[in-house]
Design goal:
This protein is α/β, with parallel strands linked by helices. The chain is built from 25 helices and 21 strands.
C-alpha cells in the first residue's frame, strides 16, 4: 500500500521519481514470480491539485480577490483517479507489465457473493501476471465526512489494504509512508525514536501521534490501526518509507527497515521499555532477592528452567529454524550456521546440564558471594544463552545478555522461557536481554552498577570493549589452540586426537587451529599420514615456511589466525622446545596439547606452556566447562587474574570476610596477641 505522501510531492503534483522507483520494484517482483497487489492512495490529492489549477486558469482577477472555497473531495477523487491510473498504466507499459484498476466501496464487502467474485477475479489476474491496483471509490462513497468517518468494514486505503490482505490471504503487507516507520512521537521531535518492532501490549498506549497525512485521509494513526488488525489476524506488516529506493526489496531480504507488526512480536522483544541503567539496576535488585533464597529454592529454579526448556522444545525449534533459514539465505559460512542450530537432542542436553548444575554444591554463602551484575556479549550460539543464564542463577548474579543478531529469534524465545520460570519473588528482570547493539556503549559506561563484562567473540570485539570501559573485562580474544605431535608419539593416537581436535566442532574456540609436528616424523613419512587424516575429511591445510615447502601446500598468511572452520595451519618444529617457543610466540594462551609417549617430554611441555589449559594425549576439545565438571561455562578466560580457563560458578564469585564476635574492639592492639587457627565454619 502506497500513501498519498509518497505518490505526490509537496505541491500536490505526482512525485514521478518515487512512483517510477516503486513501479520498477513491483515489476521486478512480478517477474520473479511474486504475486503483487497494489493499493494506492493519492487520487484525492492529485485531483485537488489539478482542479485548483483549472480553477485558477478560469478565474478572473476579481474572482481571485474573493475567499476561495474548499474543493469538493469527491470531485477531486474522480478527477484524480483517472490521472493516477493513467500514470501507472504508462509506467508499467514501459516495464512490460500489465496493470488493472479495481475501485471498491465499503458496502460492497458486505455482500458474500461480491467477496467470492473478488477473490476469483484477483486470482485470475495474478495467474496472468497482472498487477491489480485497488483504491476506494471516493467519488461515489456514501461517507458523510471522509476525514473523520471511520465506520464500516474499511474507512481508508490503509484499512482497505489490511482487509484485502485478509480476504486474499496475503503473506505480507508493506505500507509505504512518508516517514521511516512508526516513532514514539512525532518524527519531527528529536526525542522521538523509531520503533523497529511494534508490541501491542507495550506501545499502544505510549505513542503520541502527530498530524494526519498532509494530503491523504488517515496519517500514521490509520496505518497503525490497520497494521495491528492485519498482524493480529496472522499477516505480518511492515510500515516503512516510500522515499527510499529499494525498500521493498530490503524488506523481502529480511533487512531491518521500518516497523514490524507481527502477532508473535511479544516473544521477540521485552514488553516494557527500560534504558541501560534501569535494566542494570533491576538486575542487581533481583540478584539480591535471589541471594536471599535458600539453597533449595535456588536449586528448584534451575529444575524449573530445565523442565521449561523441554516443555517448550517445539516453540524453541520453530523460532530457531527461522534464524537458521535467514542465516543460510544471507550466505553465512557453514560453520557459523552450525553454531545456530538447535535440535531436540541439544535442548535435552542443555536441560541435563542445567539439572547437573542444580545438583552441585551450593556456591553461595560461607566466604564466597556473587560478583553482582554481569554483562555478557556472546556469539550467535543460542545454547550459550542457556548455559550463561543457568550459571548466573546458580551463582546468584544478575545478568545482562547481548547475543549475536543472527540468533535474535532463538535468543528471544529462550530468554522468555527462562525468565518465565523464575518466581515472582525474584523477578524475571534478573536476566535482561539487550536487543540492540546501540545499547552496548551505554551499558559499558555503568561501572557503578555492572561488575564484570565477559565478551565472547572476535579479537576485534574483545579489544574494542576493553578500550571503551572501566568495568573489569574477563575473557579471551582468540582461540588459537595447538596440538604438538612429538617424535615419540603413538601415531594412531595422534591421528585420533588431531582429527577430533579439528573436526569435532571446527567453529569452537577450543578447536585445533595449528598442528605442530616434530621434524623426525617427516623423515619417517608419519607426517603424511597425519596430513592424510585431515585432508581425507575435507580439512584445508595451510603451512608455515617449513611445512608449506615439504607438503606443497599454500603458506599461511599468519600463525595468529583462528579459522573457526575446516581449515588449519601446519608447521614443522625441531623438538618440544621449538613447539613451546612457537606456542608462546603465536598462541593465545587458550588450550594446547602434546601427543607423546615420552613422560619427560610431556612433563616439560605441561610445566612450561603458559596457557589456561595444557593437555597430554587428549583432544583440545576437552577444554570446556561441562566436560570439566563445572556444569556449564560462561566463557573461557585466558587472563591470569581472578579466573582462568573455563569459567563456571566459582569464577563468578568473589570472597567475603565474615566475622562473629561478642564485643571485641581493637583499642590499638594494646595487650593483645593474635592467634590464628582453623575452626569449624558455622552455617
Amino acid at each position: 500500500k502506497v500513501g498519498t505522501g509518497v505518490v505526490t510531492g509537496k505541491s500536490g503534483r505526482l512525485a514521478l521519481g518515487r512512483l517510477g522507483a516503486l513501479c520498477e520494484q513491483l515489476a521486478e517482483l512480478n517477474s520473479d514470480g511474486f504475486e503483487v497487489i497494489l493499493v494506492s492512495s493519492g487520487a484525492v490529492g492529485l485531483g485537488r491539485q489539478r482542479l485548483r489549477y483549472r480553477q485558477l486558469v478560469n478565474s478572473s482577477f476579481a474572482d481571485l480577490q474573493k475567499p476561495q472555497t474548499e474543493l469538493d473531495g469527491k470531485a477531486c477523487a474522480g478527477v484524480g483517479q483517472s490521472s493516477l491510473m493513467a500514470y501507472y498504466e504508462t509506467m508499467f507499459d514501459q516495464l512490460d507489465v500489465t496493470a488493472a484498476q479495481l475501485l471498491v466501496n465499503d458496502s460492497s464487502f458486505r455482500d458474500k457473493d461480491f467477496r467470492k467474485q473478488l477473490n476469483e477475479t484477483v486470482q485470475s489476474m495474478l495467474d496472468l501476471r497482472v498487477i491489480p491496483i485497488f483504491n476506494e471509490n471516493d467519488a461515489i462513497s456514501t461517507r458523510r465526512a471522509p476525514y473523520q468517518d471511520s465506520s464500516g468494514i474499511f474507512w481508508d486505503n490503509d484499512s482497505l489494504a489490511a482487509l484485502l490482505g485478509l480476504e486474499l490471504k496475503a503473506d505480507l503487507l508493506i505500507i509505504l509512508s512518508d516517514v521511516e516507520g512508526l516513532y514514539t512521537g512525532p518524527p519531527s521531535d528529536p526525542d522521538s525514536k523509531l520503533i523497529h518492532t511494534f508490541i501491542k501490549e507495550k506501545h499502544q498506549d505510549e505513542i503520541t501521534f502527530g498530524d494526519k497525512s498532509r494530503l491523504g485521509r488517515g496519517g500514521m494513526t490509520a496505518k497503525v490501526k490497520a497494521a495491528v488488525n492485519a498482524a493480529y489476524a496472522g499477516i505480518p506488516v511492515i510500515i516503512t518509507s516510500g522515499y527510499s529506493a529499494e525498500n521493498i526489496d530490503k524488506v523481502l531480504r529480511g533487512l531491518r527497515v521500518g516497523t514490524l507488526f507481527h502477532q508473535d512480536a511479544r516473544l521477540w522483544a521485552p514488553v516494557t521499555d527500560s534504558n541501560a541503567r534501569d535494566m542494570a539496576v533491576a538486575a542487581r535488585e533481583s540478584s539480591r532477592k535471589l541471594q536471599a533464597l535458600s539453597s533449595e529454592d535456588r536449586k528448584q529454579i534451575l529444575y524449573t528452567v530445565a523442565d521449561a526448556l523441554e516443555a517448550n522444545e517445539k516453540t524453541i525449534i520453530d523460532e530457531n529454524e527461522l534464524d537458521v533459514a535467514a542465516a543460510q539465505e544471507a550466505g553465512l559460512e557453514e560453520s557459523l550456521v552450525a553454531r545456530l542450530v538447535m535440535t531436540p537432542a541439544k535442548i535435552m542436553s542443555l536441560a541435563a546440564s542445567v539439572r547437573k548444575l542444580a545438583d552441585m554444591e551450593d556456591p553461595i554463602g560461607r566466604t564466597s558471594s556473587p560478583l553482582g551484575v554481569l554483562l555478557i556479549v556472546f556469539e550467535s550460539r543460542p545454547d550459550a544463552l542457556v548455559q550463561i543464564a543457568s550459571l548466573a542463577i546458580r551463582s546468584g548474579n544478575g545478568l545482562l545478555l547481548k547475543g549475536g543478531k543472527e540468533a535474535r529469534r532463538s535468543n528471544a524465545i529462550l530468554h522468555k522461557v527462562i525468565t518465565d520460570a523464575i518466581p515472582e519473588t525474584v523477578g524475571g528482570k534478573l536476566i535482561g536481554l539487550v536487543t540492540s547493539r546501540e545499547e552496548i556503549p551505554d551499558l559499558l559506561k555503568l561501572d557503578d552498577v555492572i561488575d564484570l563484562v565477559i565478551p565472547r567473540g572476535s579479537n576485534k570485539l574483545v579489544s574494542q570493549i576493553k578500550n571503551t570501559t572501566k568495568i573489569p573485562v574477563l575473557g579471551h580474544a582468540d582461540g588459537i589452540c595447538h596440538v604438538y605431535i612429538d617424535k615419540a608419539c603413538n601415531l594412531d593416537m595422534a591421528k585420533r586426537i588431531v582429527s577430533d581436535a579439528k573436526l569435532d566442532y571446527p567453529a569452537a574456540c577450543n578447536a585445533m587451529e595449528t598442528l605442530l609436528v616434530h621434524k623426525d616424523l617427516e623423515q619417517n613419512a608419519e607426517l603424511n599420514e597425519l596430513i592424510f587424516a585431515l585432508q581425507s575429511n575435507g580439512v584445508t591445510l595451510y603451512g608455515g615456511p617449513r611445512a608449506s615447502a615439504i607438503l606443497n601446500i599454500p603458506e599461511a598468511p599468519s600463525f595468529k589466525h583462528e579459522y573457526c572452520s575446516k581449515s588449519c595451519t601446519v608447521e614443522v618444529v625441531d623438538d618440544v622446545h621449538g613447539a613451546i617457543d612457537h606456542i608462546h610466540g603465536h598462541g593465545s594462551a587458550h588450550t594446547d596439547c602434546i601427543v607423546t609417549e615420552d613422560p619427560e617430554v610431556a612433563e616439560l611441555f605441561l610445566r612450561q606452556v603458559d596457557s589456561a589449559a595444557v593437555f597430554h594425549n587428549a583432544s583440545t576439545r576437552f577444554s570446556d566447562g561441562f566436560r570439566f565438571g563445572l556444569g556449564a561455562e560462561v566463557g573461557i578466560s585466558t587472563g591470569r587474574i581472578h579466573a582462568r580457563g573455563p569459567v563456571g560458578v566459582e569464577g563468578l564469585l568473589t570472597t567475603r570476610w565474615i566475622m562473629r564476635g561478642n564485643g571485641q574492639v581493637v583499642d590499638g592492639d594494646n595487650g593483645i596477641a593474635y592467634t590464628h587457627q582453623d575452626i569449624p565454619i558455622q552455617a
